[in-house]
Structures are given as C-alpha cells and as structure tokens.
Write a structure and sequence with these properties.
The structure is a homotetramer of 202-residue chains. Chain A is an all-alpha fold and 202 residues long. Chain A has 2 domains: 42 residues, Homeodomain-like (Arc Repressor Mutant, subunit A); 131 residues, Orthogonal Bundle (Tetracycline Repressor, domain 2), CATH 1.10.357.10. Chain A has 9 helices and no strands. Chain A is elongated and about 65 Å long. At the A-B interface, α6, α7, α8 and α9 of A face α6, α7, α8 and α9 of B. Chain D binds a DNA duplex (31 and 31 nucleotides) through α2 and α3. Chains A, B, C, D: Pfam families: TetR_C_11 (PF16859), TetR_N (PF00440). Chains A, B, C, D: It comes from Streptomyces hebeiensis. Chains A, B, C, D: Keywords: DNA-binding, Transcription, Transcription regulation.
DNA sequence: CTATAAACGAGACGGTACGTCATGTCTTATT
DNA sequence: AATAAGACATGACGTACCGTCTCGTTTATAG
C-alpha cells in the first residue's frame, strides 16, 4: 500500500519551519541561511532541499502559519470590525518574522511568477478572507448595500483590501510608526467617511 | 585650500549609480552584486566601497533619483490631483529598479536604524511632499477645511500619505495587479467619499 | 537445513561485478560511485553493502576475474614464453578497468592491511602463477638449472615476477608507452642476457 | 612594470605544498581533502583553487619536490651505481607521501592527458635523469659499449629505466616487501647478467 | 620641481554560504 | 532474512561574493 522507501518524518517539517522562524527573529531575512536553519532544526541541509526548493519557498511556508491565526470576531459594527482587523494585522506585521519577511518575499516575487502565486495562496488570500467576511457581516447589519453584480463586488472588495492592508503595511514598515489605537481610529474614520468634508458631498 | 591628494572624479558617482540601476533592471535586487556593479561601471570594487558602505546604501542612492521626478501638476481639483499622483507613483513602482528595490530596502531597514533614516530622507519624504502640496492646493480651492492645529494637520497628512502610498504599493506589488485608470478612479472615490453609503453618515 | 529467510539471489553478485566493470570503463576509478553501480546493476544500495564492505573490496572482486584469464601456452622456449606472458599482461593492463584500477587499489592498500591481502590473494598471486609455471617448464627444457634450496628458488621467482610485472606495468602506465612486439623482444633479451656486454661477464 | 593588482604571497605556495605532504602522511591520498589542506596551511580554499586546479595538480607539485632530492653519487662501478639508485628510489617510495600518491596519480592520469604530462615532467623525468647519467658514467668506465644510433640508445635507456623503476615499484608497493640490501644485490645481478645461466648465451 | 597624499585599477586574500553529490546507515513495505 | 525504495546525517565539492588588503600608477596640492 504505502509507497516504497522510508517515509519522511512528518515532525521534521514543523521543526524546520519553527527553526526558520527562529532564525528570522534572530538574524532577519537577509542573514538567514539554509545552513543555519538546518543546524537549528537538527537536520541535514539535504533534508531541507528535499522538502523546499530554496530560501523563498521555505520562508513562505514558515511565515504562512502566522497568517492563519488572523480572525475577525464580530465587534458589532463595521467600524469596530475594521479597527479589529487593522490592529490584528498590525500586530502581525510588527513581528520581525512576519513583516520584513513579507516585504522581502514580495520584492523577490516581482521576478518570480511561481513565488508570486505561492505568496498569494499562502499569505495574501488568508488576509483577504477577513475583508470578505467583514463585508458580509456589514451587509447583514445593513451597513453596506447589496451589490448585485458579483464582479463589481469583487473589485470593490479587492480595493478595500488593498487600502486597508496597504495602509497598515505602509504605516508600520515604510513610515515605521506605530499602528496604535489612535491611528487605527482615524484611519477607520477616513476609510468609512472619506477625506472630503461632509458638506462637499453629492 | 583643497585637500591634498588626488580628488575623486565626480562623474564616477553617477556612473556607478547608473550601473546600479542597470543591474537592478537586469538582475533584480537579490542577484545584484557589488562586483557586478563595479564591472558595469568600469570601476574597481575599492572605489565602490570608498563611496558607499554597502549594497543597501548604494541602492538607496541609485533609486532615490527616480523619486525626484515625481511631480504634481495642478489638474484643477483634489480628485484629479489624487488621480495624477496615484498614476505617477504607480508608474514608478512598476519599474523593476524602483518597486522591488524599495520593498527590499524597507525589509532590510527593519533591522537597521541608519538605513531606515536614509530611506526616509532620500525616498519617502520625496513622495510625501506631493501629499503636502496637494493638500495645500485643495485648501486654496476650498475643497479642504483649514486645520488650525499644525500637529493634527501633520497627523492627517501622514495618514493620507500612508493610505495613498500604501494602497498603490499593495495593489501594484503585493496583489500584483495593474494600477490603471479604472482602479485609480474608484480608489480616489473611496478616498474622498469613504466606504459608507451617503445616507449612513452623521 | 537452509537458513531461515529469503536466500540471496546468486546471479546478483555477478550482475553487480559486471556493472562495476562497466562503470570503471566508462567513468574510471575516481568517478565510480556505489550509487551508480547499484543503479547499473538494477539493485538497491543496501544490497551492495550487504555483500561488499565498500568500493575497494567491490572493485577487487570485479577486477580479479580479469586476471583469471591469464594463461601460459607453451611456446617452446623460455624466451618465447616470457614474451607471451608479457604481451598478455600488457593487454590486460591496457584495459581501462584493469590497469588503472589495479594501481589505485594498490595505492589504497598501502594504508589498509586487509585490502593488501585481498589484492594479493585475488590478483597478484594469479599473475605469479604464470612465472612459477614458466620456470618449471624452462627447467624441464634444461633452460634453467634446478635450484635445490626451495627458499632461494622462491626468492628468485619473486624477483623475476617483480621485474617482469614491474617493467610492464611501468612501461604501460607510468611511462604510458605501448608494450608492443618490439619492446617485448628487447625486454626479454635484457631479462635473459642482462645489460652487460657478453664479454664483460665473469 | 610589475603586473597590476596585489601580488601573490610567494611563501604561501610552499606552505600549501608542505601542508599537502603533511596531509598525505596523516590521511593518505584517498582521504586528503582540499578543505583540510587549506585549514592546515592557514589559507582559504579559494587561494588553493586560485593556484591549483584541483587535488591532482596540487599533489603532483607537492610530491615532485621529493623527487628532486634523488642523486647519483659515483660509486665506482655500474653495479654499485645501480644498487645506489635502487636503494634511493626505494627509500622514496617507502615514504607514505610519495609511493602511494604516485600510484594514485598515475592511475588517475590514465584518463587525463594533461595530468599525464604533468607527472612525466615533474616526477618521472627527474628519475630518468639518473639512468641517463649512470649509463654515461658506465660508458666512460668502459662498462657499456658506445651506441652510435641515438634513437636506439634512447630506447635502451627507456627500457632500462622501466625495468629498474618498475621492479622497485612493484616490489615495494605491489608485492609490499622490503627493498633491502639483499634484494637490491640480486636484482642488480639479474639486471646486469640476465636470467640465463652463463653457458646458455650465444 | 619635488614631495606627499589621496584616488584609482587590479587582483590576492580569509571568510562564508551556496546547492549538489556520495557516503554508509536507517526505516518502510514487499517478497 | 533478503530486497527495492528512498529518507537521512555527514561532510567535501568547486563556485561565487563579501569586504579588506596590498600593490603600482595617476593626479592633485603644498613646500
């Protein structure tokens, strides 16, 4: 039944991913080396390469699990939900294994189609879930109108996701300033109400 | 007067920076090497290290000049100005020397205080200028109210900058989808009017 | 009677040895690998190691069979017999599986007592047989005197063997020049009559 | 005048060669590694590869100097000179850096034209010198006749060299028995007088 | 007009990581 | 038990860059 040959030890995978995260915390992306990860995991370099094709793939998997923890508890209103997701995402990006690695991976992915899809599937889509869920809830609450055209709805969701994730990421990593309660509140207000003064509308 | 010894050839600096950009276009950040840049510039490695302390500093300078070209022609309205700046910024990020390099540098800067300031001074602040200028113009047009508290005004400008730059950057590089006229228009609408339906306000 | 468990397939041994010789021909001693031999023989690496302790032992056995083919047809005189054995030995050493492997094995054997004995038993003694046989015949023909002391006789046989085998080996592999009819004839003349001009003797 | 660039430290060469010999003594040819030699010599692996293309070339040079020490003091007669050279050569082959390495190199050279010439030039020809010199002296003493045809003379010298070097090499390394005074004497007698009993000649 | 001092090219140098390969052992399921 | 398959720890391979160094050469100012 089982395939021939000695099977891979399954615990090894998670040991390696944990070692990778530890190395990211200690050394950062640019100083992370395969040899070091192997040493930390108590594993041979060949075992690493048997399971991942290189640094990038390895780090994607190591970081991806962090993004699994994102959740969207129902806080009762769209604004509160947005604030919740912003704070959660910011907390994640603030971790040295996550934020910097994500940037570096995305930078690398601009020249690597396969990596781009891997990142999207393992990391980005797991964030976008929250946006979709939040919009669903807001509609049930009547805070957002129903959009009959599913394509237009998707476009809007994408846009909102880019705005939220982009703003937090830029604030936290590019501007390198804290995403605290105050910033989160004003950002959420901007997102919901827009920049124009109330009277300027319509 | 002048210090003794042979003076540095000033053209060399720009030759090296041009070579750096060429290498970024051809190889990308992760495969760019000092030796290769030296070869391209027709310069010895020692000359490179005499003028820059390493890869990161070199690339910051090489990329910074690209961000000097950003301009904000007056298009007559806040919305039009925002669209203009979004498209300009997107065009810049789409260039392989600029977008990916910026991400990689920022990733690296999370563990390097000096680099962070260098990036801020040479790259980020040059973008933020446009936001400040745009807000000034909008006020003169009456599209934005005057904010008496300069600190609050600064916070808002920072927020708007993070939202605009972050959204474009996320769309272009993380989501890896085009920042075209359509997206720009809907993004600008969202920025100005917010997510909530008109009636939900107040 | 028979031990429990599945018995070893006997054909496997010769398949492996043939694969080893093929690998020696194609790759040579230094590039021969156990994995490659296993692959060629259609056999798992474990099977190899169950039957031989390593590369050296395996190659000794693989090469030894070649030395079994050496024969000494009676050509009617000591000189003719010497020429016959020289040409046969030279033909063997010229084969890429044999000559170079023998040298490499002997080189290795200088640090490995067990290997030394294995080579002696499986390879060297099979050559020496011919010398002993040739001397026997020469005595029957009256070309060589009887030596009453068996120990002295053995010493002389050893010496003659070292001279013949050594000269051919050195010519073929160290000097890397052909052991052809001409060389063989002059060598045999030297062996039988010596270097000194006839008159210089006694 | 001098070529541009930092010149190579000349002492490094001999340090590396000494380290190579030390490694050969300690580990033997088959366990000698470039990394280990580099470590012993206090030198980076890259420095090794900058100066030698690989293990074989390195060992040829490391071993060659040993063969420079061979000399042929005039002992008054051809027989005595032969015995002298045999003992010297045997002493050399008995050294673990020399004998086994030579065999291994020659084994490798059967598949490498360049290595073959390198060995010939650096090692073999230095031995052959002694034979040529010895024959010269023997002629002056009247022990050998003058050979008018230089080509025939060369062939004979080659033959004698193969016989002497081959016999000693085979005795010492293949048969693995001592080349002592007794053996040397009987070998020399065989070389000079031949195998046939005196009466069998003519 | 000659010191002297720095810039500059070339390339050697000690390191370190790369990704691959072979070793010999082991763990499976199958025969 | 032997076998095929293949995972595994180990460690060398030869290459590539790193950032530093040591040369000879060139180009400026200062004495």
């Amino acid at each position: 039944m089982g395939r021939p040959g000695r099977p891979r030890r399954p615990e090894t995978d998670s040991a390696i991913l944990a070692a990778t995260r530890a190395a990211l915390v200690e050394l950062g992306w640019s100083k992370l080396t395969m040899s070091d990860v192997a040493k930390r995991a108590g594993v041979a370099k060949t075992t690493l390469y048997r399971r991942w094709s290189g640094r990038c793939d390895l780090v994607v998997d190591a970081v991806a699990v962090l993004f699994d923890d994102l959740e969207l508890p129902d806080r009762g209103s769209l604004a509160a939900d947005v604030e919740g997701v912003v704070l959660q995402f910011a907390a994640l990006l603030a971790r040295p294994e996550a934020g910097a690695s994500l940037l570096a991976l995305v930078a690398e992915s601009t020249r690597d189609q396969a990596l781009r899809q891997r990142i999207r599937h393992s990391i980005v889509d797991r964030q976008k879930r929250l946006v979709l869920l939040g919009r669903e809830r807001a509609r049930l609450r009547g805070e957002l109108p129903y959009e009959p055209d599913p394509e237009a709805d998707g476009r809007t969701a994408d846009l909102v996701f880019d705005v939220i994730a982009g703003a937090v990421l830029h604030r936290a990593l590019v501007s390198a300033r804290p995403v605290d309660e105050g910033w989160t509140r004003t950002f959420t207000a901007l997102l919901l109400d827009g920049l124009s003064p109330t009277g300027a509308r319509g």
